[in-house]
Protein 1
Amino acid sequence: MAAASSSCSRRYDVFPSFSGVDVRKTFLSNLLEAFDRRSINTFMDHGIERSRTIAPELISAIREARISIVIFSKNYASSTWCLDELVEIHNRLNDWGQLVISVFYDVDPSEVRKQTGEFGDVFKKTCEDKEEDQKQRWMQALVDITNIAGEDLRNGPSEAAMVVKIANDVSNKLISPSNSFGDFVGIEAHLEAMNSILCLESKEARMVGIWGPSGIGKSTIGKALYSQLFCQFHFHAFVPHVYSMKSEWEEIFLSKILGKDIKIGGKLGVVEQMLNQKKVLIVLDDVDDPEFLKTLVGETKWFGPGSRIIVITQDMQLLKAHDIDLLYEVKFPSLDLALKMLCRSAFGENSPPDDFKALAFEVAVLAGNLPLGLSVLGSSLKRRTKEEWMEMMPRFRNGLNGDIMKTLRVSYDRLHQKDQDMFLYIACLFNGFEVSYVNDLLEDNVGVTMLVEKSLIRITPDGDIEMHNLLEKLGIEIDRAKSKETVLGIRFCTAFRSKELLPIDEKSFQGMRNLQCLSVTGDYMDLPQSLVYLPPKLRLLDWDRCPLKCLPYSFKADYLIQLTMMGSKLEKLWEGTVPLGSLKRMNMHGSRYLREISDLSNARNLEELNLSECRSLVTLSSSIQNAIKLIYLDMRGCTKLESFPTHLNLESLEYLENCIWNKNLPGLDYLACLVRCMPCEFRPNDLVRLIVRGNQMLEKLWEGVQSLASLVEMDMSECGNLTEIPDLSKATNLVNLYLSNCKSLVTVPSTIGNLQKLVRLEMKECTGLEVLPTDVNLSSLKMLDLSGCSSLRTFPLISKSIKWLYLENTAIEEVPCCIENFSWLTVLMMYCCKRLKNISPNIFRLTILKLVDFTECRGVNVAMSDASVEDHSSYIPLYENIEYTRHRFWENLNHKHLACRAGGVSDKWEGVGHKLGQREIMRAKLGSPPRAAGRVTVELEAAGRLSDQLGGYPDGYLGGYGRTGARPKGRVPKTFRGTRTHRKYRKLTIKLSSFRENKSSEEIGSRTVTGKEEEGSDRPNIVKEGKGNLDLESKDSRIR
């Protein structure tokens, strides 16, 4: 690694103090060569005549070096010259804090420190006839210098390895930022990373790119690098963005590098001629023109060995086009670093005063962790009172600082016109949307890529577009300044702005001939029931709760790709036939006044049609048969539908959401049987997802075998009259199968054995189910839920790969001995299995089983005696893994994780932890409740942004251990609530309540846990406070 930060105020990087007779031609020679490869400037005493006293040149060299290396060897103390050097180094260490590295070459450090052994004999001989004060100075220097941690070559793997280690250590110590860049928080990490890429010890010429968005600190990093490296190069230049004529580029460039006025008379191609033998350092800042690079730094062979060319840009494609593969991406700082940056600018400190903490945090968030924004906003708040900060906050929240806008605007202005349009689309409408959706809607697959390459947006791992909030504000400000005729997209949102500021009337959109995207969110219910005009080039019309009864007669939808009118008051869309050749998606969900869908004859590209909850819809036009590309059709809740087209082409259909099961469809031959069976014409070859949940009339889906090679998910839950499962032998890609609450279902066919990709099978509350096939092994099955299958008598043996097995409230009589084959089982829930009599001791062989529940299995015999427990003591791994179990059957094990006394309640909460916003269910463990208390439940109350709601569960445990969206059972209050507060502040309150028979609930304990922000995460974690368990503040003596 290079000595990147050699300060030009110091003459030398390293001064070595050594005994020439011991190390000059061996160890020192190799070390100097390693220093030279790393461009470390080392002082050598060639030509200095040795005398009895240290030469002035040596004293000067020691004082002008940044690091002194003392190489102690057997004959080091034989030279008064060396000992005097040591004293001078000692003085520089004490008075000036010079860095000192000690190296012990074939000597014992303790002998050097104590002047004993062979080294001590040599030292004593040198001290003969010397004055006492001189001897004391030598001795003190030896003690203090050897006390500094050093390198003992006797302990290293080899001398060569030790040379490399010392050279690297010295190089790293020389890396420190220039004082002029000390206020740039985190500069050290940037410089260290860049020095690793530059690899100054290499003799080859290198080009390196620094890439990142505007305002991220690229130029600052480049300047810091240049200020620390230029002393190591004979020729160097920092070249800012050049606005001059192309003919002047080379003259300006060469004049900077060579340090004199260069005139080339308009000739091109002279850079290579003048610099090809010179070692140069060149930093080109803010490069946006490929020709600029080609003219000045066309190839690395133009420059001498060891040259380094650094190109700073925000255009990735520019670097790729110039074959610059060595790249350093400048990323946004963490929130902690961002807060420190802000505080440096605002307070001159690394952290805010206590009463400014909340305000400083909000400003850092508003700046989006962008160093430019943090610096500008921090400076504008410097030396202001808290009241002044509070007065300025609305301005920061709603607008963009002029200095920040000026800097960021440059990036926008350099874009091509089409890319500028894409930038504005994303800033005003599509920030956070899927990139595939935006490309499809705008029919532009290039614009997003260009913005990514220029660091104006990024694509998340999930494929979503992400634009920095300051760039988003810039785009909104630019769009607001445009004239009405040039506006491309508008978003009206009453959730954030008052209707007075954003009025809409009958003629609001007149004159907006180029408007392509219109999004209206909120309550504009005071509008008239019609519009005079809608722009003809609209691609997106998204109007939430639209108050219109019909779209304008004059509206031409030639370009319309998506029509979304959820919750509208529309009675019909338009009159007559409208050209809909571009339409791909139509969503009318919840438009309860819609009576008919207009002619769709031209909608040949329609892929998605959502008419769910259109409760007034009476008929669906036969013209829908022209939608040959239809993939998704949803007509759930269309309760008044009276007619349906009889000839649908379903070749492209992938998603079918209860779309044609409706008991109000008389008079059509094949639809009349839909209440019992799907039509024989049904050919769902490409169907990916089939949902028929809640159809109480359905008895079976189809006769025979269907080709279902694309089917991934099937949900027939709550079909109370479903008597048999269709033949799924060809549904070989099925992953999830839901059959819960199919109470008429008696058996499952053996053809289910073909579902080798099935992961999840839910058959909860199938009360008629008596048996499962035994001759199958579903090799991918992870979760099987048969809870509530009250007629099921035998233990399910359909898979050995199950991890989560739920058999609560079944009639199973035995846990068989083959349970030992369920080697992946981690959760076994069998509470309230009242017919359960025997539990095989082979359950002890399951070494990763973590949770077991046999609560209320009152028919269980004593499965093993105390002696038999001892017989199975070799299966101790089970004891170590089970985290929760409930039955006195386990008492004999006498283990801290297993013992749960039937009559007592534990007052401890163990392992309470949950990342808010994830779909994992929180786990808590609680002992059995006292019988007198009835039922113990858990309530959770949280403040924070949550994606799931959790409810309390009976008998003291939470969650379904693998089941997402699990619901509470019994009399359990569901009080887990989520509100959109700032993510930094979260708390979780846990309450323990007791329900007595026929009495109201009584709170018997509570505990509040505060969320803490994890480094590198955008979500807080509810964590356990301290060590051990979380004690409930109990109000009930029963749980003391």
Note: Residues 1-9, 494-501, 658-681, 862-1040 have pLDDT under 50 and may be disordered.
Protein 2
Amino acid sequence: MFGDLFEEDFSFISNNHCGKGKKLKPRESEPPAPRDFTNLSGIKNQGGTCYLNSLLQTLLFTPEFRGEALFSLGPEELGTLDDSRKPDAKVRIIPLQLQRLFAQLLLLDQQAASTTDLTESFGWSSHEEMRQHDVQELNRILFSALETSLVGTSGHDLINRLYHGIVVNQIVCKECKNVSERQEDFLDLTVAVKGVAGLEEALWNMYVEEEYFENDNLYRCGACDKLVEASKSAKLRKLPPFLTISLLRFNFDFEKCERYKETSCYTFPIQINLRPFCEQTEMDDSEYMYELFSVIIHKGGCYGGHYHVYIRDVDELGNWQLQEEEDGLIEEKALRDTENAEEPENPLAVLEGILSEEEAKQIPVDQLGQKLLEKQGMSWNKKYRKQYGALRKYLQNHPQIFQLSPDGNKVSLKETHKLLFKLDSHGQNLQSPSLKKDVHWNCEKNPPRPGAASAGCHWFDLNDSKVQPIKEKDIEKQFQGKESAYMLFYRKAQLKRPPEARGNPRYQIPEHLLNEMSAANTELQKKRAECDSANNGIDLHLHLSSCYKFHNGALHPSLSWKESVVDLTIDRRKTLGDLRQAAFQMLESWEGDMVLSMAKPLPAGLHLYQVLDGDELTLDGVGLADGADIFVWNGKEVGGTKVLTGPEHEPVVLNVLRLAEHNEGGKGQHFSEAQLVFSCSTSLGQLHSALAPAGGIILKNGSGADREAKNWEVFHEEDMKETVRSIGLRDGCSVLILDSHDQSFVNVASGNLTAFTYDISWLQVKNFCGVEEEEKHVKITATIETVMSDIKMKAIRELQLEEELGNESCLRPVGGNGKLLSPVPEDYTVKEAELKMGSLLGLCRGKAPTSTQLFLYFMVGSDQNCSPEMEIVVEETASVRECLNLMLEKSGLSGDNWHLRRLDWCYEAGEALSQENATLKELNVCRGDTLVITEGKLPGKGFLKIPIWWLKPSSHRKHGENAQDQVNGITWKMEALEVSAAAAPPEPTHPGLDLCYAGRIEISGEASLEDLKMQALTLPCCQEQVVPLPSFLRAWTVDSRRPGKLLRDNKRRLSDYRLGARVEICIEPLQEEENLGPHELLLRVQMGIPGERDYCSSRDLVWDISKECTTWALRQRVASHYCLPVDKIEIAKYFPERFEWLPISSWTQQISKRKRRKKQESLQSAPYHLKDGDIIGVKNLLLDDTKDFSTIRDDIGKEKQRQLALEKRKSRQERVQDPFFPEEKLPMKPRKPEVALSINVGVFR
């Protein structure tokens, strides 16, 4: 009913470092947060369990349910959770888990408890906690489950003792005064909301007003034995200690055919006197007084929303405290408003009071105005007219309270409201309800309840994990609107709590649960301490000045990294003084002053920033994060060299390029490049003097690595006073130095370099041979016509690897993710290798493939985590089988039960290379492709691999059936998902049959249908079936998830059926031997049940259509099958995909006037298209004269299809109206199917 009602979004935290290096841990590893200031625990939402959470909190705060009932049951009656897995133990798991949950909510120091164990005890193992349900439905089902669980214990009457009440319905004969009555038990009262102003009026309508049988609507009296006038009424005969009231806020609009929520104003009192509604009224008033203590609230509409609950803390377990400042502001504002202007009071109560005091039934409207003047000292026009209009109009606007005479001159109170208004209990007036919003319910106007000032008067809003204190008057906000009251819980006012229960959450909790919670709290405190230490611990890297040298503008380690750095772990909340002391203790040999400075690794080296001063400052306060680098020195010099610190002296690495003096490869001038370090405060004049002392120009590249001529910009004379930082030069920027000779090779116009004389570019080559510790890289100048072998040889020379590699090396492009791609043939040019200038190549061991060889990746299975990717070079003329053998040899596999598949776009095993004798070139296997070695031999030519399904009668769970059998059935269907990516478990043809996946078989296309049936019986799940001969099996193809074509003739070859490569077969077991001929049609007939919209189980009917396939022939065959006259049956064909029945009649049989002969009628043509397996419904007119063949299941199916079509139509209309399709007009998600709520309970009788 409530599609998507409880769906919630979940955010996930990454394990990666983020921000300032702060370590983040998964939330699952952190202990739960402690309780907040309210000292009450919430309940975690499992995804859709807000309705369950609200009801559980209500039961928890029902002290008599919690303590006197539930906690009074010990392990000797309920058993223990430790014994729950023992086969013979009768453990009442639901009450035990409920006890444990309540103990956690009362005693465990955590912000929110989990209901996972409780819902598992309900038997919810298929994500039921993610589904949406109604809290009123849950209330009844949970009480029923508890009653069943407590059978045979002292708590067997727990629910009846606390919630059971009796309603008596009476009919009184007006003639003989005979009273006919009928009792009804209830655990909750359901009251109407539509058209009713509040709870009192609803109860009045139900239990005070009478219904009269008169005129044409008379009652047959059992005593008089005739139709007589009578009156019907209902009364509350027995009141329970706790009264649960469900409000019918959800209704159905039959005109619009949709559900809607009643959001009109519906008042209910904090305290109510039920005397007027009871059968016995002679007892003391205290027996009828009830106090509200819980309000379950629904926020949202019919198809979406959320539940939370307002609860009165009867035992004062929580800490109720609102912000005093906020209260002071509210009081101050209220006082100021009162002083500035008197707000006119509501005239409704005043008019009701005047009319209730009148003895006469009606008084003139003018006289009412005069009495108002006498009582208030001001006339209606002066006090109320401006806000409420004329008096007569105001009375007409409240017809549910005031009754005007036909001429409109006299007025009186309606009898119902007059009696309600006069009822008084402990000085309390039951105010008459109103439908208008200007009638405000005010809890402050109610007289104080006995003891309300001292005990149990505080309210809390429990919203899943969140608990907040609220005021009693906040309940008024839940009278109306989309967020409004849905269930009300009242308790008898005379129920008193013992003093020892006040503020004592341990009261009446069994000793074993107290011990368990105490141990759990100790463990929580330990985990919180460990987590706190882990969360606040930071790792610092201390760089020792004695292990560093200052050169090239930055600090560089003189030793290895491990010897130069000391790691220190410390709490971020400690001070710099603590850090300094910890450093002294670790560096015992340190002499002299110790200065700690923040450091940062830069491309040029390590650079120092601010000094960490102020021993009283915390590490977190000065910005020390996890992984920070700290330099330990004397604060002046390192190795005798003065070190400049701070961001203004950061070193910047610049790529300085010059045009070389020689050509490469016969074409193009190339660059020579050097990396130099300068301080970011260096001026361009100083840079020019250092780089071009003999004169020349300096150019800046404005586009990073792209060194085309158009991207170079000349520095002008006026820029010479700018610094390296202000001009925009950063680490890795390139500057080009051109002297007077170099300028002859380029064209400089308007301060920009417009063109190089030659086409110059370069490639990067990185050493991946692993002969050195660090992988070096060099830049090689090249053109698009440069041969790859020349690039490789120059890279080997510059990397000085001639002796180590020789000719046993190759160049491989490096992909964007760092993966080495397939080697480039050495006789290719840069253009043929499809390399972009500036690309990165890896120099690797191994010979490069020739132009006739293929470099391939391969893996065993498509799971990259389980099988590493391997490489191989094969001739493109090699066959698939030869390639497979080479791969098997390299991967260490043996045998011939393997085949190759391509890796598809989603990194899974895709198309099989089935032609094992074809060459790789013929199958378009390309350089760099990835192949997957897959277990299993491909079927040979002419063989088929066929998935087999088992068609059997539907195994709907019957009363007493083992739950494990049902689970097994689900398991079979889940295994069917593995057949193919799109193969879900087929939907049944009709409710009487199920399809279960059995497995795959491999069979020759030349084999017979009989061979297929015999081989299918060898599958594991079919071996338990007792089948004497293959003729006791029926074979169907599977078409659109349903049995499709019936395969006849057991001796026929499979290839003759033209089944195709993707065919699936389902096998149906038979009770008797069958061998259908080509002219025999198999139908499934089912007889309608008289008086019900349902059918008996279907039966197979074989119909010979060799002579004729007409309506009359079919009727005769069906009538003969059921031994009925032909004219006393009606038949219809069922179309399951449309949930429709088409009656089969003789309307198509007519005579053509032109040709003077009958048209050939065949049920195998339109509109029936009768075929094997079709369902034929039969009506026996002797017992059932209705010709409606549809069932309730058809109505439901059609309604779902209609709703889906309506949503699609609305979606199309929205797209037409708004071509841009904004976010707020996105089509609604289809509503989830409704699933019945259930709780599974063991048998304890």
Note: The radius of gyration is 44 Å.
Protein 3
Amino acid sequence: MFIMFTKLIKKSFLFSFVLLLSVGIDGFVLAQTDNRIIGGQLFSTGAPVQVEVAPSGVAFYTSELWLFEPGPPRFLATNRDVGQVIDLGVFDPGVELVFGIVVRDTGWTFKMGPGDRNPDGIPHAAVEWLEPGVAVVGFEDLYGGGDRDYDDVVFIFRGGIASEQCGNGRDDDQDGLVDCDDSDCRGTPECGGENCENNQDDDGDGLVDCVDSDCFTGCVGIGRCSNWPRITQITPSSGGNSGTVTIAITCCNIQQGATALLRGPGGDIPAQQANVQTTSGFTFLSASFDLTGKEPGVYDVYVFNPDDTYTLLPGSFTIKEGHTGEVWIDILSRDVMRLGRTQRILIAYGNSGNTDVEAPVIRISTGQNLPIRLHPNGLASNVLHLLAGGGGGGVSTLRAGATVTVPIFIDAPNAPGNVDINMELLNQGNAPILWEELSPLPGYTQEQWEDIITSARSVLGDRWSDLMQFVQDNVNYSTVEPVHLDELLYYMVILIGGGSLESSSIQSLDIKNLKTINRDWTKPSISSETSDVQDVEVIPVGDLVVNPTRVYVITHGLGGRNDTDPNDRFRKLAEKIKELDPTANVFLVDWTPLATDHRFGPFIIPFANNPWSVKNNINFAATLASIQLASYQLDGYFDLSKTTMIGESFGNSVNEQIAKEFHGQADLALIFNPASADSGRTPPNFQEEANLSISFRTFSIFDATPVWKLADYDLLLETKEDQNDEQEHTWGIQWLTEQLNRYGRDTKWLFDPNGLGLQSVDNHPFDGVATLDGRVTPPEPLLRNSTLFPVNPFLILEKKHRRVQIVGAMDPNNKVTSSVLGIGEPLRYTVFFENIESATAPAQEVIITDQLDLQNMDISTFALGPIAFGRYIIIPPPGSSSFTKVVDLRPDKNLLVKIEAEVNMATGLATWRFSSLDPQTGELPDDPLAGFLPPNRIPPEGDGSVSFVVFPKESEDVESVCNQATIVFDVNEPINTPSVCTNRGDLPDLVVDIIGAPRFLKKLSIKRGSSFFIGDITQNIGEAVAESSRTKFFLSLDSTIDPAGDVLIGSRVIPKLNPGARSIRINKLKVPLNIPRGRYYLGACADGDGVIVEMNEDNNCKVLTNTISIR
């Protein structure tokens, strides 16, 4: 604020400054026409040089003039010494004279010449030649360039100085380059360049004056072109004519309200929508064009500013035949993670087509329910939902050809083991928003909440498509990153509806119209009074005992329980346990109000399935239960270490959270049919929350889960004949009660589980079968590659999984990539680096190099991704192949970090350089303990990463691409990362497995006309992407499936599958009424319509060896 105020003061002196200069000093008058060279340089001719201090636009700051090169640096004068003349002597011919200023008030140092000499990366001096040997040099004294009028500090140089005078046949600046060979003459009329002042096309390239790049030095226009725009980059450079294509146009001097145009064989194509966006201090224009049916060919790209300045880049965009975009996803992570530390990993997604697609929803979770953060200091949640737009394409659009790489942060557990990272691509489609099922947030009465929802609904609409349109129209979000969907939707509903919004991690979003779009809703802030409804009650069963021998906590799941029902199975189980163990205390956790509230909790997820939204109430229920159990603990009635936890469905998640609330371990956990991953919540894992844990699962469709090891021992629970899905899902509590009724205190399941003889079984989802009579038998072998209903994929288009090992020590410097590349996808790489915890000092400079494979990589497609260190994440403009940025670490550290990244297109060498700078000198700090990257004692403060993408060449001979990176910390020896390879595919190959254990299928007897459930895994084991296909299911009288002659009983659509990818689903199949009774083989065929050309056309079908009885 102080600096802004001083600039206002400086402007107030402008008028007197002009009058003063009109008088002049020694005949000097500062020209009012702008013929200055921004970033200009001075060279010695060998004659004596002198400098005079001239009046400046402002005398607020005191600045010192220094000659920095040739050294040693010399102090000459201050801007207060107006009229003083200093004789500098003579210098060797051709030597550059690098003058600069040191601003006493701020400590900044700014030098003449190109911007990379300065701490903010921009030029700070302008040179105007009055005549040969006389130049006026004006400086800008504010970091960031201020108003860039270059009149803050002014000096006049005379004598042996020159820039190259073009066309005179002499080497005026003594650099060995004469006239047009000298870069000083680039763009001059004498050298065939553009004269930027005469409104003529001097060089015959079709570009007049300020539209010609000859009139620019980098982004700085020469003379009257100083405010004109200039296009520096376009991404993508081509698009398809079958839809909308969004182009990210990086442009200097772009103004708000700018628009764009394509001009070519099909005429003029104006942008439908154009928005100016900013990332990491760089500005670009996101322009969307409807190219449907447009004539293919090469087009010029125009950008028009509101002030009538404009620019164009000839032949920079090509319209091609269109093909619909497909979205791909990926996880870029090390194979290991250090225990107890925060791990930086990267997720990537993109659009492989050449037309835009609607931004999909991506869900990120871990199999271990670990905290995940989108930013290092952000709020943690177990599941992230991201609206995956970005890449320069708008909040609700994933532009053609975009690749978006996003760092996320996962807190590793404190014990060795594995972490399963899951990334799912969801299909929200045009699903309705279930407004009537949104439960009130904490602190709102039902009436207040209904008013809020009524208001929000009237604005946001009733369907996902309505909501996306509103987001697109009203949310101005940086289009290079995805949107945290959960927080955004919650924020919008509260803000529109008139509720209280005391805090939000996303209030910095530019949501343009939400506060005024519905002016009639001016509700006062709603108080945070708690509800009168008792949502959770911990009920003791029987008499309580002080210092009990054991404690039992029994928790129901979805749907609640009825305490007034004498047949309530949870009450019956509790009473039986109390009868058999009278010195124990038994508690029922009743959270029925929350378990039957099939509405969404704090986050609005319109694509979620009813009734899974109960999952949002679990943590709240566990907290309320823990508070009540803590009061029993104070009275000596509860002790977690003596507790057996028994749960059903979501009740197991409540129990898990209770154990975490008490920061201890239960003695025993019996986990019956934990709610599946389909619910949107990772199933509980009691291996760390109990001394011994046993899970029981049935074949119910509700019990699907991709997690095998939920407990120390995972068992298949045998069920009775003719039970439906709900009966199987709720069978566990009744089964345990029957065992207690049959065996009493001899029931080992409850009183002596170590005597059951349980053993772990490798490579199998189950460690045994819990039979109807209470025995434990070994598990039966499953079919090849089969798991038991691992996931319900009704909402999942594609899933990526990465298993990371938790270790005590690791090499932190690494490089990762994808092992297999789909059609239309770029090679994607991330290099991780770290200043190890045991290091004795921070790193001042880090250099990363990566030699790319010119033979197999198309270097012209190289694009930088996120650059990260500590808590800083810097995102270059879309498609950037070079990038420079200065990051200010103050006030945390009195340092600047200069980041330089580029690829040498000739050699293929990519380089990233991180340099610590002293803010006062702009040089590396003298203090050896001053550096930007400290030892990584509190991750991620001492680690970082760089990412990039590059497309492989289209040659069919390219089968595998390998490379590695090198990391150098300060003056230490280079560290080579492991070499990583990506394989390109050839042809797809689809196979299918039918999911089910022999025990289940043997006893399957189905009535004609009825339905049954069976699962399938359709997988692409080939080397190329398999486009969308259909898997079909048949009943056959023999073990050979003939799609033309056997009975079709169902089918399902298989999405596009990348190599190695699989699609898993539980299918509802119906037996025809007219089929003859008897025993049939059940079979399935991948690519049932025969539309995919495959490596092996003979392995599509799978037939079960067990037959099914049709009655």
Note: The chain has six domains: 37-181, 221-320, 327-410+426-498, 537-598+612-774, 814-983, 990-1110.
